[in-house]
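Budget justification aside, the reviewers requested a transparent look at the raw inputs and outputs of the sequence design task funded under Objective 1. We therefore reproduce one unedited record. The lines immediately below are the C-alpha cells for a 128-residue chain.
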C-alpha cells in the first residue's frame, strides 16, 4: 500500500510540475486540496481555491517556467504525506523577454482528499 501511495504522490507532483511548465492555472490549482495553501518565496501566501487561482494567474502572467523536477523524498503516514523535491531549468520573464536560470527546493505536505493525493501545503526557496 505504501508503494502505491508513493506512486500516486509522484504522479500528483509530476502533473503539478507539468501544469507549471504549461502555465495551466486549472491543473495547478486542481492539484491542491480545497483548503490548499501556497507559500511562494517573496510573495503573499495564497490560501483556498479562490486565492490559489489568483496567485497562479499572476505567476503565469509574469513568467513562463521550463523546469524538470527530481523527487528526493516521499514519506507517507496514513492520509498525510510530505515530499521534498528539487527543480531546475529556466524562467522566461514576459516583461523583459529575458530567460534566467531557475532552481528551487520544494516542500509539499499532501493529504488524501476524496481518495486522491492532493497538495495541502506547498512552499519553496532557492538554494543559492
Amino acid at each position: 500500500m505504501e508503494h502505491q501511495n508513493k506512486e500516486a504522490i509522484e504522479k500528483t507532483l509530476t502533473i503539478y510540475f507539468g501544469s507549471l511548465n504549461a502555465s495551466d492555472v486549472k491543473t495547478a490549482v486542481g492539484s491542491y486540496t480545497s483548503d490548499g495553501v501556497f507559500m511562494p518565496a517573496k510573495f503573499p501566501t495564497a490560501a483556498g481555491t479562490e486565492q490559489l487561482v489568483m496567485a497562479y494567474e499572476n505567476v503565469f502572467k509574469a513568467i513562463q517556467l521550463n523546469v524538470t523536477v527530481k523527487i528526493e523524498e516521499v514519506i507517507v503516514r496514513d492520509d498525510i504525506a510530505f515530499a521534498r523535491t528539487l527543480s531546475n531549468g529556466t524562467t522566461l520573464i514576459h516583461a523583459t523577454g529575458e530567460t534566467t536560470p531557475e532552481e528551487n527546493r520544494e516542500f509539499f505536505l499532501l493529504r488524501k482528499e476524496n481518495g486522491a493525493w492532493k497538495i495541502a501545503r506547498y512552499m519553496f526557496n532557492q538554494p543559492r
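The first helix runs from residue 2 to 21. The chain has one domain: 2-125. Computational costs for records of this kind are itemized in the attached budget.
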